[in-house]
Each structure stands twice: as structure tokens, then as C-alpha cells.
Amino acid sequence: MRDAEEFDAFYTSSAQRVLGQVYAMIGNRTEAEDAVAEAYARAWDRWSAVREYDSPEAWVRKVAYRVAVSAWRKAINRLRAHRREAVEQHVDAISVDHVALIDALRRIPAEQRRVVVLHHLVGLSVAEIATEARANPNTVKTWLARGRRALAAHLTGAGHQTTGGRSYEA
Q1: Distance linking the first and last C-alpha atoms of the chain
Q2: pTM for the full model?
Q3: Residue 89 — left, alpha, or beta (φ > 0 → left; ψ -120 to 50 → alpha)?
């Protein structure tokens, strides 16, 4: 029981100070809070040894800093691994038409964009879209017609002409 009371007193007297110091060292309060909490948990697990140190607070601060740096290194290593994996993947070049289509899709209302994509890119029928969107098939047809007109207007305005549902450079 004495150990718990002693540790509680140590924690109460030093936790805010250590948090402030670690926050100042790493620059992120959330990460500092996580690291300091982990350091105090480790101190409690080893309290019989840590309490004998010249400065238990310095030990906690050092452990918290190391925990934060370790988390940062893990994040950097994950990012590097992701980049290595992404570099090794072949990605086809994006055409000007593709970019224009994506831009035009972003400019039309969400429900129209959804039905145009589901119908023309996914290949769903009006009935299938109505079921998925929980809408009346006539509403889906209206959204589809309006979406096509809006796309045509945006694509024509972007230097594209549309004929028969196909797009080509003007």
C-alpha cells in the first residue's frame, strides 16, 4: 500500500511538469500525453527500482521522450514502406480526357454524379440504381438525364465536345 501512495504522490507532483517538458521537446501535445502516460505506466511497473534513482522524474521524462521518438520512427518507417511499395507499382498515365471527366463529375450535384457513375462506369441498370439509392426509378432517370446534360455542359465548357455519349477534344 505504501508503494501505491508513494507513487501517487510522485505522479501528482511531477506529471504536469513532465508533460509540459515532453510537449516542448516533441511539439505535439497528444503524442506527448500518450508518451508520458506510457512512461508513468512503466515507472509504476518498476517502481521499486525507479524510486531509488537520483531523479525518478528524469527517468520518466527520458522514457517518455524515447516512447515518443519510437512512435515517430515507426510512423516514418510505415510511410517509407508505403512509398517503396507505391513506387514499385505501375500506374497508367491519366489522360487529359480522364482529368476533364473527373473535374466535370465534381461539378455536378451529388445525386446526379452518383447515378451517372453507377450507370456508365459501374454498369448498373436504372432499376439496380433505384434499389441501391432507395429512389423511384423515374427519379433515377431524371437524375441521369440531368447529370448527362450537366456533364456535357461542363465538358463543352472545358474545350470538349460531346456526341453520342462520347467525348472528344474540340
Answers
A1: 83
A2: 0.48
A3: beta
